[in-house]
Amino acid sequence: MLLSISTSVALLSTLAPLALAHNHIDEIWANGVHYPGFSPNNPDLPYPSDTPGWYTTNLGGNPLYPVDANQNQIICAKGGSPANISAPLPAGTILRGKWWQGSGWPVSHHGPVIDYIAAYNADPTQLKFVKIAQRGWINNSTYDEGYWASDELIADDSSWNIKIPTGLKAGKYVVRTEIIALHLAHLGTGAYSTNGAEFYPQCINVQVSGTGTKTITGGVDARTFYRGDEPGLFFSNLHDTPNHADYVIPGPAVWSGATTRRSFTA
Ligand SMILES: [Cu+2]
Questions:
Q1: Which of 67, 93, 116, 252 is most buried as measured by Cβ atoms within 10 A of its Cβ?
Q2: Within-domain flag for 152
Q3: Which pLDDT does position 43 carry in this prediction?
Q4: For the chain, what is the domain count?
Q5: For 134-149, how does the pLDDT look when each residue is reduced to its tens digit (9 = 90+)?
Q6: Does residue 256 lie in a domain region?
Q7: Is residue 264 part of a domain?
Q8: What number of other Cβ atoms are within 10 A of residue 217's Cβ?
Q9: Residues less than 5 Å from ion ligand 1, measured at CB
Q10: What spacing in Å lies between the alpha carbon of 254 and ligand 1's midpoint?
């Protein structure tokens, strides 16, 4: 359908900054040791050998939508395949990722940040994840939409700290960290919507050390995390009020074995 010129211009001016804003985990620290992230914009593909960040064919760092929630790309991003190396770190220490693409995470993309971990498998469809941290709406300050985990991430150099569970048994694991942007969630039309909430998952290989005995139990396939139409994704009033105390973070419950320095919201 043809739009009037004025409507088209208005749409372009609304959408263009969002389209340019997407980014990815560009830098990684494991217990303070720095690694490059996997850059989906790096022209030097094939896959580099110096990053524990998983490869993705999602050149441009584009979002996934509710329609992708039960598809392979939700697991470790589109075309996700394992990194060549794993970042070593002791159980109970911090894995940190910086979301960057010329600039930090866009402030327009308010939403929760959620972290998962699975015992390593080279086949992403075999990974059984538990949720180890989640943070959603924080308070009604700062923005018309309120202050969210994504805003806390921006305030920390566009970075997010993930605590590897204390006492986790030594071994190779895949950490899956994810930002879910809700700024267009009101445009979602249901579980198979091709618009709406935007998912940005990134997987990172870690080699956990220590004498812990905790093994992952009750993990699930990432394709079962989300339906796409639950209240935390199919979200109509982000821009209407800064108060989202009733926001429910989507996905499974936090694993009983998780330990984090970040407080949870419901
Ligand atoms: Cu976006």
A1: 116
A2: yes
A3: 58
A4: 1
A5: 999 999 999 999 999 9
A6: no
A7: no
A8: 10
A9: 18, 198
A10: 26
